Amino acid sequence: MPLTAPVQHIHGSDSAPLNYFLHAAGPAAAPTLTLDWIFTAICVLVCVIVGVLLIVAIHRRRANAPLDQLVQGNDGLRWIVIGVGLSVPVLVAMLVYALVTLNRVATPAETPALTITVTAYDWWWKVAYDDAADASLRFVTANEIHIPAGEPVRIKLKSADVIHTFWVPRLAGKTQAIPGQTNEQWLQADVPGVYRGQCSQFCGAQHAHMAFEVVAENRAEFAAWSAAQARVPASSNNANVSAGKTLFLDKCAGCHAVRGSDAQGAQAPDLTHLDSRRLIAAGTLTNTAENQLAWITGAQRIKPDSLMPGIALKREEAANLSAYLATLK
């Protein structure tokens, strides 16, 4: 397998139309979207009014009138009173409406049955399903959040380094992930689908390549996915796979974890079920065998300043490692 395979980058939601983010897909996002449209309309109207008044004032100004005469007299005072009289009620109404909207989206209508802990790193997302009563059903994944459609889900947000912001535009507003603090928000997708999320707080060189996906599924599909994620990947006696696993433990286990193996690293994404994910490198690449190797050997070329080093591999090593990664389903 060539080590210089073409890299397939992902920019935004690869199947989404241009107006994708202008539509809400859940009750935590719909009130905020309406608020955005109303505030945008008010701001545009104010700009138009100010622009029209400015044009009228320019045309009405006497050619040689001193500047001090333009701001004195009853005529100028009258316009100041009118401006303040119109602005204050509008601004107060906007404030009240914003507070009412914040209250509406603060808590879901029903208590979430699922809590997910998301920890932000430079530049990826750790996703822990750690609230199951049965410890055997708890697991960790990365950059891909699965939720049951039509149900509220609580998200606990943490940061391992700097301030990040968790944002899924179609499902909820922005919530910051702050070091040493746990913040919360909730998501709910009305219908099954894939919803793109993004860090929206500038956090460093690869801020733009710190994306994730929320996959909403019906309850049966979500239960099946959760059960599969909780299981340890099946072992293989294939010689190439065994050689690839040995190579992985030697070069990757210091940072990455694979449950059921000696790889217990905690500073990089858990790769236990890597091959089940649609994207890798926090949404930067599609998850193909070619892109996996391109990322392993050229991470600093694809995502400069990330903590993932480029690892030089011989052709046989690349083939063996790829064979092992393909078993992490």
Automatic annotation (TrEMBL):
It catalyses: 4 Fe(II)-[cytochrome c] + O2 + 8 H(+)(in) = 4 Fe(III)-[cytochrome c] + 2 H2O + 4 H(+)(out). Residues 239-329 form the Cytochrome c domain. Residues 111-228 form the Cytochrome oxidase subunit II copper A binding domain. Keywords: Copper, Electron transport, Heme, Iron, Membrane, Metal-binding, Respiratory chain, Translocase, Transmembrane, Transmembrane helix, Transport. The keyword Transport applies. Its main location: membrane. It comes from the Bacteria. It is found in: Membrane; Periplasm. Subunits I and II form the functional core of the enzyme complex. Electrons originating in cytochrome c are transferred via heme a and Cu(A) to the binuclear center formed by heme a3 and Cu(B). Belongs to the cytochrome c oxidase subunit 2 family. This is cytochrome-c oxidase. The lineage of its organism: Bacteria, Pseudomonadati, Pseudomonadota, Betaproteobacteria, Burkholderiales.
